[in-house]
Design goal:
Layout: H1 4-17, H2 22-35, H3 47-67, H4 75-105, H5 126-134, H6 143-152, H7 159-165, H8 173-186, H9 188-216, H10 223-247, H11 255-262, H12 266-289
Helix pairs in contact: 1-2, 1-4, 2-3, 3-4, 4-9, 6-11, 6-12, 7-8, 8-11, 9-10, 11-12
């Protein structure tokens, strides 16, 4: 059997003379490398990793062959050097991919980094409270107050919730859904801006995770560690600034927009929401005393 030096040189000679086709030439090189790992500089690699590398290497083999120039170095020496250099590139690519995957799968609670706190209204007597808010001081039903609040807080109102709450405030579900559709269209530009900012925050968050993982793989006493550490610090600072900015953006509709959707005056909406707030705080205070 030919050793690596003799085989590769002969294959290259046969390819130049036209005795074998390019595909046979490339296939023979791959076949030899696949079954003779011990004759390469990668004999210390695990077999699974070596096979994965060869699959990646084969895609670059044609480019390597075309780049070879016979100017003193034999083809087998060129290939040995190419395998050594390309294996390092493969390791770097693989490691970067592993870091990215690690960063993704380790992000089990991204909300603490990315999402703003969504208001949560949970109370064991919530339905009775809503019923109380609908009734004014004179005992008359005034569902427009709750309707104004729902339209104002459209950003946090799902269609499913709207369909459930509609009968409670004396309005058809399809009418409430249509109002929500209109306010969302009115606020589309602002909501798109918020969505885009959140996407940027997601990217920055995963970038921080990747930097953290890379830092954990470095030795602390090397220059590259200090550089990576500074890069991570800057990335974290930027993430915090981005989060602060997105949480400061108003996500509720303006009272004027609510008035347009409902078909009433801004002053009526102002007064309705103000009374609701006072009434809710009063009930919350009583509940606290009890």
């Amino acid at each position: 059997m030919f050793n690596m030096q003799k085989l590769l040189n002969k294959l290259y000679s046969d390819f130049l003379s036209g005795e074998i086709s390019r595909s046979d030439f490339e296939g023979s090189i791959y076949h030899f490398l696949f079954y003779n790992q011990d004759k390469t500089c990668l004999s210390h690699w695990e077999s699974d990793e070596y096979e994965d590398y060869l699959s990646w290497f084969y895609l670059n083999l044609r480019k390597a062959i075309d780049s070879y120039r016979d100017v003193g170095s034999s083809f087998d020496a060129f290939m040995a050097k190419f395998i050594l250099i390309s294996s390092k590139e493969y390791r770097i690519r693989t490691k970067s991919k592993e870091i990215t995957e690690y960063s993704t799968w380790s992000a089990q609670v991204p909300d603490m980094y990315v999402s703003e706190d969504t208001p949560v209204y949970i109370h064991k007597d919530l339905e009775n409270r809503i019923s109380s808010l609908i009734v004014d001081k004179k005992g008359r039903k005034n569902t427009r107050r709750i309707l104004a609040l729902i339209i104002k807080c459209y950003y946090y109102v799902s269609d499913d919730f709207a369909e459930k709450i509609a009968p409670r405030i004396g309005i058809k579900a399809k009418d409430l859904l249509e109002m929500l559709k209109k306010i969302r269209a009115l606020r589309q530009k602002k909501d798109d801006k918020i969505y885009f900012m959140k996407e940027c925050i997601y990217s920055q968050f995963f970038r921080c995770l990747a930097y953290e993982k890379k830092l954990s793989l470095m030795f602390e006493d090397v220059t590259a560690y200090k550089k990576q550490e500074r890069k991570l610090d800057k990335a974290r600072e930027r993430l915090q600034r981005m989060r602060k900015r997105v949480t400061s953006i108003r996500k509720d509709a303006t009272n004027n927009q609510v008035a347009v959707i409902i078909g009433t005056s801004k002053g009526t909406v102002d007064a309705s929401l103000h009374r609701l707030k006072l009434q809710w705080n009063k009930m919350a205070k009583k509940a606290g005393l009890n």
